[in-house]
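Suppose you are handed only these lines of text.
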Amino acid sequence: MMRSLFLLFACALGADAALADAPPAGKRIVDQVCSACHANDLSEAPQLKQPAMWTARLAKGRDALVHSALNGFTGPTGEEMPPRGGRPELTDAEIQAAVDFIISTVSTPTTTRNTP
Ligand code: HEC
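From them, the structure of the protein bound to heme C can be written out as follows.
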């Protein structure tokens, strides 16, 4: 809720250039699938609203993150990222778009200032 309001606000300010890299499908999939964990304080998943949780992951590079999203990933704490977010029907291209959207969300300063 906070995030979508913020994105509307960002677009109203003409900050949409920062989001242009992410195809719309990416945002839709993140909202519908990935947010269940990645925008859920009850989950141990790295949160979209907390870019600091992504710093070390971003350092691995986009390809590594796409690989994790496609095949699943278990970190040192034993928390599990399920393959394709648990949705095997999603295509490789859709998963890539979702990862690109996540990357743009957590690495764009204008979208990282909405923590309370
Ligand atoms: C059932 C919960 C859940 C769902 C749904 C989910 N994730 Fe995750 N994801 C996790 C958890 C937990 C981690 C952290 C794993 C760890 O490193 O301990 C994670 C980590 C990641 C990472 C970082 C992987 C790495 O190599 O560091 C990416 C990228 C990612 N998720 C993308 C996605 C995408 C894209 C979707 C939607 C298609 C998605 N996730 C849906 C739980 C989820």
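What can we learn from it? The chain has one domain: 30-111. The chain has a mean pLDDT of 83.
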